[in-house]
Amino acid sequence: MLKQIRAFFERSLQHSAEPAANAQRLRLACAALLVELSMADTVMEEAEIVTLRAILRQQFHLDDAALEELWQLAQSAARDATSLYQFTTLINESYGYAAKIELLEHLWQVAYADGRIDPQEEHLIRKLTDLLYLSHGDFIRAKLKVRPAAQ
Fold first, then answer.
1. Predicted TM-score of the model (pTM)
2. Per mean pLDDT, which range of 62-66, 83-87, 141-145, 146-150 is the poorest?
3. In the chain, which end has fewer C-beta atoms inside a 10 angstrom radius, N or C?
């Protein structure tokens, strides 16, 4: 089973001229980054999982089965990844500025989901901001935009 998931993941991250295949790879790359963030503080809180899955469902218009498959693959991809670069390269090749800002906002939503921002989460989001060629101003604006009112 693990070999099948790994093989699917490897096929999914190889560049293709097929739009549907590229959309699948982008979903997986974004989902893997969100999963990576939820594990940054070594504890994947239930609130983070609920928020992350809601973002994936809404962002990619997924039914339950597709969401579950993407969730499982993203967890595997995040565990097996040796670098964030493999994900951010694909995103940079395919996403424009607005889509990258939306992803950055989603990252902050997951980070805020458990009611606190851990230093590891903020560090990872800062690193991803750089890897996505976004500015420090974008980092701050996204953080403030999605910050819960109580914080």
1. 0.85
2. 146-150
3. N
